[in-house]
Amino acid sequence: MVEPKLSIVAATALLARAGSSRHVQFEPQQILFAQGSSGKTLFYITRGRGRLSISSNSGKQATISLFASGDFVGEESLAGGYSRRTATAAAITHCAALEIKRDAMIRLLQTDHACSDLFLERLLARSIRLQASLVDQRFNSSAKRLARALLLMAEAGEPSGGATLIPAISQTALAQRIGATRSRVSGLMKRFRELGFLENSGRIRVHKSLINVLLHDEDYK
Question: Whole-angstrom Cα distance, residue 32 to residue 87?
Fold first, then answer.
């Protein structure tokens, strides 16, 4: 994973040079923007986690990626021809973000090298995560895909007695994230708890030992 060179505070101050920006807050499950809406702004996430999802014409939904503090969301608004959002962004936890108008961000990228470096760095990090996710879907078992998703969420979680408390997320959302059925996710979560990799008392606590699922080829049934 590509680590940010600037702190969240420093990066926010840098991006605030765009001028046409404002600090916004989102409650869990609140929508940042909806698929098909006009893409006139983008967001720099300063706190919290969320997900990007898409809906088909038949009403089917799928989570395509997660985002966290330090990520840009809605950056497709900067590309020519993208007048409408291609996905829905929603908060999983309480989120804070800097909302920047499209035209102001374009001017800043053209004139401020530090800002353009930050933007490219975060896009590279997103690209690497997406590539790893594609490899995960193609070659790894559902157990490994679930373990990887939980460990990624734990990176930005809260320390809790030798484990990490991750943001609240439903088994349905996890199933969409890893391309499995909800019943398969439910069975795997139960197995992981039995093996001591997880605790689940309202919120999920992830132990570092969960990485063993990625390191070994055991069949978790």
Answer: 11
